[in-house]
UniProtKB/TrEMBL annotation:
One GO location term (cellular component): membrane
Record gene name: Ogfod3
InterPro entries assigned to the protein according to its UniProt record, in alphabetical order: OGFOD3, Oxoglu/Fe-dep_dioxygenase_dom, Pro_4_hyd_alph, Pro_4_hyd_alph_FE2OG_OXY
PANTHER family tied to this protein: 2-OXOGLUTARATE AND IRON-DEPENDENT OXYGENASE DOMAIN-CONTAINING PROTEIN 3 (PTHR14650:SF1), PROLYL HYDROXYLASE-RELATED (PTHR14650)
PROSITE patterns: FE2OG_OXY (PS51471)
Residue stretches making up the Fe2OG dioxygenase domain: 140-242
Record keywords: Dioxygenase, Iron, Metal-binding, Oxidoreductase
Protein name according to UniProt: OGFD3 protein
Amino acid sequence: DGVTEVLAHRSDNLRDKFIEIPCSEDYDSHKRFAGCTPRKCGRGVTDDVITREEAERIRRIAERGLSLGGSDGGASILDLHSGALSLGKHFVNLYRYFGNKIQDIFTEEDFALYRDVRQRIQQRIAQVFGISSSAMYLTKPTFFSRMNSTAAKTTHDEYWHPHVDKVTYGSFDYTSLLYLSDYSQDFGGGRFVFLDADSNKTVEPRAGRVSFFTSGSENLHRVEKVQWGTRFAITISFTCDPAHGIGDPRLG
């Protein structure tokens, strides 16, 4: 892997760490939206937007939802927007599959917290990149992930390959991750790695930490395989294109 530099240690308490990097050309092949499409690119980490206590409450939402299913392999996802839930080697629609029982699993407070956290992350990204928060739209997929060391059973379980979000999902312009568990305490491996030409730069997850970045090739990245324990996170993605916007999840 060559040289590896740690951008954010688990033990750090970062107010705002931001590194600007030149934008890739990925945005040129999509329609540009003034006041939103990245002109300033880079990556940031903050422990200042979401408290650890809020992260624990959000993790419990993920745990309750994922307890209804879960992948046979090491990576399970729960998408409250579309209802997608890993089940065995497949996905089911949580809302169709469980119907009214959903009201026994999630509360209005859960969805209100989810919405509040999403809005705060959106505002912080807008502030750092100097764009208007109202010009950004939540986009899909935005989802919880639970990863452990179980061997992959399908390609969906193979989360560790290097990728570029803008290439994988054309709608993405800004990507964020809210970590819901602690590296080296709750799990081993599973660090987030930016793959730069000169070195790898890693982010060690900690509950409440938000890592965010522009979604183009300037931020090629991967997640290390989880070696032990369970890693929880939520990926929250934003687009500048209102045609690709999605609403917040609603209960019932």
